[in-house]
Structure formats: C-alpha cells, structure tokens
Amino acid sequence: MAVIVDVFPARQDNFGYLIHDEATGRTAALDAPEAAAIRTALQMRGWTLSDIFITHHHLDHVEGIGELKAAFGSRVVGPRAEADKIEGLDELVGDGDRVTLGETAFDIIATPGHTLGHIVYHDAENKHLFSADALFSLGVGRMFEGTPGPMWAGLERLRALPDETLVYCGHEYTESNARFALSVDPDNLALQARAAEVKALRLAGRATIPFELGEDKRANPFLRADAPELARYYGLTGKHPSEVFAAIRKGKDNF
C-alpha cells in the first residue's frame, strides 16, 4: 500500500516530513524539529499524528517531541543507543529492527558518525530512505561523535540500496555541498549536471529533495571515497577508502 510523504520547511534550514500510510490513516513525523511547523502541516493535510520516528539526539531533530506527544498521544520511536539523550521515547530500535506505520514497514539501518547512535528509516517497498543527517544531497553530516571507519561503513550500506530510492534528508544544504564537491571532483559530469540542476531549483525557490540515490552515488564525493580520482586528489592512492573519506570530510569542514 502506498504512502504519502509531505515535505515542509522547519526551523531555519531543516526539512520536516509527514509520512502517511494510506491504508490505515496513520501518520508519522520523521524527527520533530519544530512542533509548530509539524502541527501546521498536519492541519493542512487533515491528518492526526500517530507516531514520531526519531533518528538522533540533536536538538533540531527532537525539540518538538514533548509538545507533539502531549497534543496527540503519539508513539515515539527512537535509537536505542541514544535513549539516555532523548526524552519521551516509547519504543527503542537499533540496526536490523523493523518499525511499522500501519501497513508500511521501515527497516532500521545504523549510520554512526554524525552521532554515535544515528539511525535511518528505509521503506523498501515504496523505495523511500529517510536519512536525516547521515546522508545529504551531495554531502553527509559533520562527524561530530564518530570516526571515519564506521561512518564510511554505514554510508556503504546506504549506497548499496537501489538506485531508484528517493532520499529525504534533514537539511537544505545541497547548494553549498555542490560548491565543495566541484572543488574536489571538478571533472565529474554527473556532479556538474546535478550542480546545475540544484542552482536552477534554488533560484526558483524550490527544495532540492527528495533526490534519487543513484544520482547521488555518481555525484556525491562522500559516497565515492573509493574512487581512484578522489584518492589521487588527496594524495592517498592505495589507502583504504575510509582514509579518503576522512580527508574529504576534513576538507568540507574547512571549506
């Protein structure tokens, strides 16, 4: 059975998401960046918030939990590894678990790095990936808590998902990500095409998500840390891709 994904802005540059299971009418917020924005989106759709799916503990992803749970009595699902950092969780999940929203199932994939317990939600049937801050269009989240090896391994798992997967990430960072990506991978034709598309979308005031995972596999330097040209750029030919990934992440941090 199909789902509807409603996308709306929250805070300064967060994306808010409502996921609506058409068969049962259950509706989940993917993270809770801002209660007011989520409540407005619910009102516009005429939906009731039955669930909240949390990806990680950062304030701009959890701040609305208390207000929304009090207003709707929603079930709150979140990462077991960060349960001590997130108030209001009802159900704890980790890598390999499955969460249901009515008739829609989401597989939990661990993506440590941005935070140690970061998880993503993958709806394989409808080909949706809710990646929060683990994977952005043309980028990834800052490595605040993790180390390069596990973070790269988590990205490899996401990269293995089908090309036609639509990715819904946590922030509108694509334009700045494109500028950095072109600085380290300037001859990448797929990246050049995506950067031009992104520029046009932003000039038109439109969001750059969702994006197709297959397109990002070809254009996102963080998903291409095992590409020889990127290893050469950083003088790391023959090194493990996690070392190249670390160099790309450091380069973006200082860009």
UniProtKB/TrEMBL annotation:
An annotated GO BP: methylglyoxal catabolic process to D-lactate via S-lactoyl-glutathione
In this record, what's one Pfam family?
HAGH_C
What residues bind Zn(2+) 2, as annotated? D60, H61, D133, H171
Any one GO MF annotation of this record: hydroxyacylglutathione hydrolase activity
- Hydrolase listed as a keyword: yes
Give the catalysed reaction(s), semicolon-separated: an S-(2-hydroxyacyl)glutathione + H2O = a 2-hydroxy carboxylate + glutathione + H(+)
- Keyword Methyltransferase carried by entry: no
Q: What is its EC number?
A: 3.1.2.6
Top-level taxon of origin: Bacteria
Which pathway is this protein engaged in? Secondary metabolite metabolism; methylglyoxal degradation; (R)-lactate from methylglyoxal: step 2/2
> Where Zn(2+) 1 is bound, by residue?
H56, H58, H114, D133
In the record's cofactor note, how is the cofactor described as bound? Answer: Binds 2 Zn(2+) ions per subunit.
Entry-linked InterPro entries: Clx_II_MBL, Glyoxalase_II_hydrolase, HAGH_C, Hydroxyacylglutathione_Hdrlase, Metallo-B-lactamas, RibonucZ/Hydroxyglut_hydro
Metallo-beta-lactamase domain mapped to chain residues: 13-171
Keywords assigned by UniProt, alphabetized: Hydrolase, Metal-binding, Zinc
Question: Which cofactors does this gene product need?
Answer: Zn(2+)
Described function: Thiolesterase that catalyzes the hydrolysis of S-D-lactoyl-glutathione to form glutathione and D-lactic acid.
Q: Which family does it belong to?
A: Belongs to the metallo-beta-lactamase superfamily. Glyoxalase II family.
How does the record describe its quaternary structure? Monomer.
Q: What is this protein called?
A: Hydroxyacylglutathione hydrolase
* Protein's organism: Devosia riboflavina
Q: What is the lineage of its organism?
A: Bacteria, Pseudomonadati, Pseudomonadota, Alphaproteobacteria, Hyphomicrobiales
